[in-house]
Write a structure and sequence with these properties.
Structural class: alpha+beta
Low-confidence stretches: none
Shape: globular
Distance between the termini: 17 Å
Number of helices: 10
Pfam families: DUF6597 (PF20240), HTH_18 (PF12833)
Domain HTH araC/xylS-type: 125-221
Number of domains: 2
Strand content: 5-15%
Protein name: AraC family transcriptional regulator
GO molecular function, one term: sequence-specific DNA binding
Keywords: DNA-binding, Transcription, Transcription regulation
Length: 221
């Protein structure tokens, strides 16, 4: 079973997953700090559906909103694109051991994991927040660059560092998430295509298959 709640870290959510039926993780522009079975890990930004492997165990995570995790981790997002890595690969091993022992010994490891994230969180970059908002509103990338006062090259460089990929991929991922919310609320595929910003239903189907490997109908089930 998967459950989530709003985090004390601004814009983030805290989630838990108990052993059960495994589901794919769809691209959402986010990065996660993870804890499971005495291990601290980081999930980088996905450009395709991620299928969990290995034994089914308890997982806890803090999911940071797009563009905010690299400042906390001290690592550009593009270095973690489509990866799950040990936190000890990014931070000193002694520090990670101390943090892991702290989480594992806590009466509520999930809350303690959130505390770790909260202690290291930094205020979000207003420019990146605006970029996400502009693209999530469905506006063209060129319009986003103009509104933010950036050249296309500057926008691409900032996006790679913050999100792990360029603004075009970020726009596609955000549009996928808009479509997913509509489909799961019972909106038809044809109406979802219009409201989420696709050219037509065929465009929606192609994009969903490319990013998730399944059909819009399967996503909405």
């Amino acid at each position: 079973m998967y459950e989530e709640r709003a985090s004390r870290v601004r814009g983030a959510v805290v989630w838990t997953k108990t052993p059960g039926r495994e589901g794919v993780v769809l691209p959402d522009g986010c990065m996660d700090l993870l804890w499971s079975e005495g291990r601290l890990l980081v999930a980088g930004p996905d450009t395709r559906a991620y299928v969990p492997e290995g034994e089914r165990v308890f997982w806890a995570g803090v999911r940071f909103r797009p563009g905010t995790a690299p400042a906390l981790l001290g690592v550009p997002a593009y270095e973690l694109r489509d990866l799950r890595v040990e936190l000890a690969d990014l931070w000193p091993a002694s520090e990670v051991r101390r943090l892991n022992d702290r989480v594992e010994a806590a009466s509520d490891p999930v809350v303690e994991l959130e505390n770790v994230a909260l202690e290291r969180a930094v205020p979000p970059d207003p420019l990146l927040s605006r970029l996400v908002a502009v693209l999530d509103a469905g506006r063209p990338i060129a319009t986003a660059a103009d509104e933010l006062g950036l050249s296309s090259r500057q926008l691409h460089r900032r996006s790679l560092h913050a999100f792990g990929y360029g603004p075009k991929t970020l726009s596609r991922v955000l549009r996928l998430q808009r479509a997913l919310r509509l489909l799961r609320s019972g909106v038809s595929q044809a109406e979802t295509a219009v409201r989420a910003g696709y050219a037509d239903q065929a465009h929606l189907s192609r994009e969903v298959r490319e990013l998730t490997g399944v059909t819009p109908g399967q996503l909405g089930a």
